[in-house]
């Protein structure tokens, strides 16, 4: 949380909703704690593919939404090792 995770969560949730990507059978944004990788900073996992991302700012989040969630293309540069 000290690395801006709550603000990122709020941004992701609002952005997905504004794009109409949320709802039954669509994208769901939810909290999951640190996923045992707290030292890596904010991260997200996209299921069902189980793709782990790290991000720095809202531009990175927008890229993940536009590429992965909307076009099903992994954003290689933001993959978490």
Q: In a few lines, what is going on in this structure?
A:
This protein is an alpha+beta fold. It has helices at about 5-20, 60-70; strands at about 45, 50-55. It has one domain (about 5-80).
Instruction: Output the radius of gyration.
Output: 12 Å
Order of helices and strands: HEEH
Give the CA-CA distance, first to last residue: 21 Å
Oligomer: single chain
Structural class: alpha+beta
Approximately what portion of the residues adopt beta-strand conformation?
5-15%
Give the helix proportion (percent range): 25-40%
Summarize model confidence as the mean pLDDT. Answer: 90
Silhouette: globular
- Report on the biggest sheet: 2 strands, antiparallel
Strand order of the largest sheet: 1-2
Number of helices: 2
Let me know the number of strands: 2
Low-confidence stretches: none
**Integer count of domains:** 1
Indicate the topology.
Blueprint: H1 5-18, E1 43-46, E2 51-54, H2 58-71
Helix pairs in contact: 1-2
Structure description:
The protein is α+β, with helices and mostly antiparallel strands and 81 residues long. It has one domain (5-78). 35% of the residues lie in helices and 10% in strands. It contains two helices and two strands. It has a two-stranded antiparallel ribbon. The longest helix has 14 residues, at 5-18. The chain starts with a helix and ends in a 10-residue tail after the last helix.
């Amino acid at each position: 949380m000290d690395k801006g995770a709550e603000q990122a969560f709020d941004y992701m949730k609002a952005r997905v909703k504004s794009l109409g990507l949320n709802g039954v059978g669509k994208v769901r944004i939810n909290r999951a704690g640190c996923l045992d990788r707290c030292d890596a900073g904010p991260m997200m996992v996209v299921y069902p593919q189980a793709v782990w991302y790290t991000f720095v700012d809202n531009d990175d989040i927008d890229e993940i939404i536009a590429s992965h969630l909307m076009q099903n293309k992994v954003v290689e540069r933001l993959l978490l090792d």
